[in-house]
Amino acid sequence: MAQYTTQLLMPDVDACIDDVQYANYNIPKLQHGHRVLAQRDRVSSAFDVQHVEDDYEDARAAQTYQQPDVEFNATLSSEQLEILEKINLLLRKLVCSSSVPDKQLQAALTAEQFAVYRESLTTVTHSSEIKYCDGMPTELRRYQAKLKAADFQCNKFEKISARARNGRARYKSGYVNAGYNAAEKLYGDALECLEEIYNSANAYERYQLQLWMDRELDFDLGAERTIGISPVSIPRVRGSKSSNALDSGLPKLSRRLKRKECQLLALKDAAWKLAFKQYEHFEPVDQVQTVRSEKLNKLLQLRDDEF
What we know:
This protein is mainly α. It has helices at about 1-25, 80-95, 100-110, 110-120, 125-130, 140-165, 175-200, 205-210, 255-275, 285-305, and strands spanning about 30, 35.
């Protein structure tokens, strides 16, 4: 019975793993704070329509999940069946969005399997982790603080200007102009800060800075550069909620989601080894992780070789 339960659970487990990985590693395409519609749907975007996933440029591809067509392991002992029942219970809890303490996981896995699971928690498994796992460069925090102050002053100026235009308040022209000049000066200070950070950075540090910006940093173009000191043309850090951000998408890289992913993979591997007959081509999870790590190390090496 436990083996049939495992077979029935596999499609839900596979779907859950994909959902967790998508939620944690996917980088959404966000422009001005909203997902970008595919070209065919942009004409209708001005109307009040309900869009579905396929309407967006970064739409998630639909997938189907099938029960594994494999032969059951006919040599399970009563003790192994009890362990498989425990594993099935934990898998069902994870699929139903319940949390599983590591203590329960340790009780269901072998010592070797649990050690592999613990190691997987700190193992890089996705390209998004390579790009963003170190977090935003520290230097950008100084720039962000200056940009936040400039945005605050700009919003203050726009409110004053709107009240003056609508006749809701009267201000001297010099007062309104002073608000605009103050905002412009703060944007100028912020852009100077970013240019200073960029010019003092080495090639790899510039690569990291560019990863975290919503547009190309083209300081090297001099007078022909496209970035400027207006709220629309000044670069924004990825993850910004500003409506002026051209591309603010970031992966979550949540420790909670990473832990859930590793738990699902560890339990799935353990359940598969117990429930189903193993063949020579079967690769246990530790071998899969080894191959995956080798591929990621090659990717890291290629990245480092560029600098």
